[in-house]
């Protein structure tokens, strides 16, 4: 139970710190309130202390003090510390989650007065919080009902109510500071598959339920039926079963469409749900209606199972999967490959992984079940292009299955695509050279491909053809004869490819892979530095200008407005053009001013609606560089790769959005 109000906590602190009685007049002066207000606070504090078997003594003309031993005093100080710490921690958003928890965990009606007292804030603050709470509940089709003299209550469909509780649990789990306020002391079994944070939140919401029993029954179901849920799916099922039990005990049960229930009864997952609910009925001595069994079976249908993709036969998976799902998976892969401009089509691991993911995912989408994706924000931030490719695939689900894909599921699809992209990046591209003819080359290629999955054989050829072959994309040459004067490393093997040859190729390619990864890391660091020089507010598409002076002044003004340069920078950039043109070919110009006038290194960029004259050249892409020496070196190292790449320049010219310009540069 919380302290009556914030001031009573401070009064309690003063009383605990004073060895002697303290008079009410002194307390009133301390808080700048009347003696009557202090007496009212003391009365409430007295009731609070009585519940803890501690006496507050008040004696006229003597003062007020607390009568307690050292153990009781220590416990009071601990409770006081926790109450004051909680008050400091509760930001408006955390306070709103706390209110949601209070309203959703029970059927009893809360009043604004009660919430204000519990949270040590005014009723007007609670009123504002309830507006936000109302918005959160509306996402689930739930209504916050407020009646004068009756209190506040959440109303709405039972399924929507349960989904809201499950999602709130996920939000509370991720809030470290709020967890300190809501959690109770709990201890998990050593082999528990529910993480401590989830368990604490469950105990906070449903303290009377023995979650160990639910865990035990789910584990028995796994053993009996020969499958294994992922830990995330396992915890999700425990949550949904706990919510179901709590609501059943409150007389709130799910009503399911009879046709949907009959369809579910024919599925294997319904039998699993029956097994679980029969066990629950025996242990908890409750009756679980068939509609609830159906509801649990829906969660099982949408749950992820532990799968070892490497051990799965592609043929077995595809033959035992609905052909529509396989078709969707293949189209997702083809579309993503096209968007990302990579070759995914031969990646069997991607196909199997995606098919195994889509089986429960489609059930979740079909039946309106949610699966939170804790990595979603990270995926969107770190892999925007892969996430975009996954989003593009959403039309395929609508086309073949008539269902809309939510952002959480798109994130999971992006994970599979991202893993496939990593596999491509980690493959060593090799050419096989052999003097014994194409048959021996194919034998070598076959043996290497069978034993070393990290090598991609790009070509088989005779030694004399190497001179005319473009080897720019090739990482290594594997040859049966000595080869000299090549930029790429050469690994010499025997025509029969012995075990020693395999080990040699493995060792050498591992070194090459380490070098590639080091180069990639260096490139990532370089691109990150370039990204810091760019700002969407300093990028302009299809500007209509008539001269280089006009565009330099315009872009310089944008930099000046954002405190990136001093005013003298503008004149120095114009003066440089009088000395020599900064047109660098391929319709690109890179005007720049003196480094002394740069406050923060930035680049302003513009594509032009019509080309303009720039010295002896015609220009329609302008990079205005406001760079200090260090950043200048980083930029030019990367910029020359763009300038020498006609495709990159064309992409820049054809970009219609600021985002596309940044992508073209990076």
Automatic annotation (TrEMBL):
InterPro entries: BglG_antiterminators (IPR050661), HTH_11 (IPR013196), Mga_HTH (IPR007737), PRD (IPR011608), PRD_sf (IPR036634), PTrfase/Anion_transptr (IPR016152), PTS_EIIA_type-2_dom (IPR002178), PTS_EIIB-like_sf (IPR036095). Residues 428-517 form the PTS EIIB type-2 domain. GO terms for biological process: phosphoenolpyruvate-dependent sugar phosphotransferase system; regulation of DNA-templated transcription. Residues 205-310, 320-427 form the PRD domain. Residues 532-666 form the PTS EIIA type-2 domain. Keywords: Activator, Repeat, Transcription, Transcription regulation, Transferase. GO terms for molecular function: protein-N(PI)-phosphohistidine-sugar phosphotransferase activity. Gene3D superfamilies: 3.40.50.2300, Mannitol-specific EII, Chain A, PRD domain, Winged helix-like DNA-binding domain superfamily/Winged helix DNA-binding domain. It holds the Pfam family PTS_EIIA_2. This is Transcriptional antiterminator. The lineage of its organism: Bacteria, Bacillati, Bacillota, Clostridia, Halanaerobiales.
């Amino acid at each position: 139970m919380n302290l009556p109000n914030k001031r009573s906590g401070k009064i309690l602190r003063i009383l605990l710190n004073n060895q002697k009685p303290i008079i009410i007049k002194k307390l009133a002066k301390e808080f700048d309130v009347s003696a009557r207000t202090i007496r009212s606070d003391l009365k409430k504090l007295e009731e609070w202390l009585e519940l803890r078997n501690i006496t507050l003594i008040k004696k006229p003309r003597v003062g007020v003090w607390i009568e307690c031993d050292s153990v009781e005093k220590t416990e009071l100080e601990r409770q006081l510390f926790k109450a004051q710490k909680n008050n400091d921690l509760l930001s408006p958003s955390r306070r709103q989650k706390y209110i949601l928890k209070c309203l959703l965990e029970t059927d009893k009606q809360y009043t604004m007065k009660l919430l204000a007292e519990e949270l040590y804030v005014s009723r007007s603050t609670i009123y504002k919080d309830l507006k936000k709470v109302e918005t959160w509940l509306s996402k689930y089709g739930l209504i916050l009902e407020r009646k004068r003299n009756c209190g506040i209550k959440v109303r709405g469909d039972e399924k929507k109510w349960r989904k809201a509780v499950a999602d709130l649990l996920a939000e509370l789990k991720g809030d470290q500071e709020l967890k300190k306020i809501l959690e109770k002391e709990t201890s998990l079994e050593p082999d528990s598959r529910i993480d401590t944070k989830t368990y604490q939140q469950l105990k906070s919401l449903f303290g009377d339920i023995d979650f160990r029993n639910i865990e035990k029954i789910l584990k028995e179901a796994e053993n009996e039926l020969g499958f294994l849920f992922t830990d995330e799916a396992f915890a999700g099922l425990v949550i949904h079963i706990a919510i179901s039990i709590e609501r059943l005990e409150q007389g709130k049960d799910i009503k399911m469409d009879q046709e949907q229930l009959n369809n579910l009864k024919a599925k294997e997952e319904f039998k699993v749900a029956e097994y679980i609910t029969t066990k629950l009925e025996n242990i908890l001595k409750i009756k679980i209606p068939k509609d609830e069994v159906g509801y649990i079976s829906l969660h099982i249908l949408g749950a992820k199972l532990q799968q070892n993709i490497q051990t799965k036969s592609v043929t077995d998976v595809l033959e035992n999967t609905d052909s529509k799902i396989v078709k969707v998976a293949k189209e997702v892969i083809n579309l993503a490959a096209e968007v990302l401009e990579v070759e995914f089509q031969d990646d069997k691991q991607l196909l199997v992984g995606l098919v195994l993911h889509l089986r429960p995912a489609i059930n979740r989408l079909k039946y309106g079940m949610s699966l939170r994706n804790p990595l979603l924000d990270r995926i969107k931030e770190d892999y925007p292009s892969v996430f975009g490719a996954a989003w593009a695939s959403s039309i395929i689900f609508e086309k073949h299955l008539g269902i809309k894909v939510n952002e959480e599921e798109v994130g999971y699809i992006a994970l599979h695509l991202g893993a496939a992209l990593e596999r491509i990046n980690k493959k060593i591209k090799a050419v096989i050279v052999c003097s014994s003819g194409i048959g021996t080359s194919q034998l070598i290629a076959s043996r290497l491909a069978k034993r070393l999955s990290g090598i991609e054989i790009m070509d088989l050829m005779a030694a004399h053809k190497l001179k005319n072959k473009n080897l720019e994309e090739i990482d290594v040459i594997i040859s049966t004869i000595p080869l000299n004067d090549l930029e790429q490393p050469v690994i010499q093997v025997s025509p029969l490819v012995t075990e020693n040859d395999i080990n040699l190729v493995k060792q050498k390619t591992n070194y090459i892979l380490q070098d590639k990864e080091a180069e990639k890391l260096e490139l990532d660091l370089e691109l990150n530095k370039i990204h810091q020089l760019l700002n969407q507010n300093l990028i302009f598409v299809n500007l209509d200008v008539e001269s280089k002076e006009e565009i330099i002044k315009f872009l310089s003004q944008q930099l000046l407005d954002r405190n990136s340069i001093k005013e003298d920078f503008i004149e120095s950039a114009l003066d440089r053009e009088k000395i020599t043109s900064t047109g660098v070919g391929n319709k690109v110009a890179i005007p720049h001013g003196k480094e002394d006038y740069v406050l923060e290194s930035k680049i302003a960029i513009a594509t032009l609606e019509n080309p303009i004259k720039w010295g002896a050249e015609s220009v329609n892409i302008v990079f205005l560089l406001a760079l200090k020496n260090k950043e200048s070196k980083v930029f030019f190292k990367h910029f020359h790769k763009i300038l020498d790449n006609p495709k990159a320049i064309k992409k820049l010219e054809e970009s219609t959005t600021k985002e596309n310009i940044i992508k073209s540069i990076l």
